[in-house]
Design a protein that fits this description.
Blueprint: E1 3-4, H1 17-20, E2 24-29, E3 35-40, E4 49-54, E5 66-67, H2 72-78
Antiparallel strand pairs: 1-2, 2-3, 3-4, 4-5
Amino acid sequence: MPQIGRHETLPGSSRSAADIGVEGASVRVDSDGSKHVTLWNGSENGSDRYSYQVDSSGNYVPGSCHYSDSMTNVMSKMGHSRW
């Protein structure tokens, strides 16, 4: 997946990876225009991960976030809800 800079605004958000204290981010654009965003600490393929979906209009898809226990704080920093 293409990586985005730590200071670039994350899709579906007004914040950057640096703003929320994660080391990296990548975005996959799906055929319908929606996006799958993955945030991580350590390495892109490591276990400290947080991911979510953004619809083709750029809105966070409620309930789409998945994360490791070590990244639960990211959900509140992003303003996402579990449901």
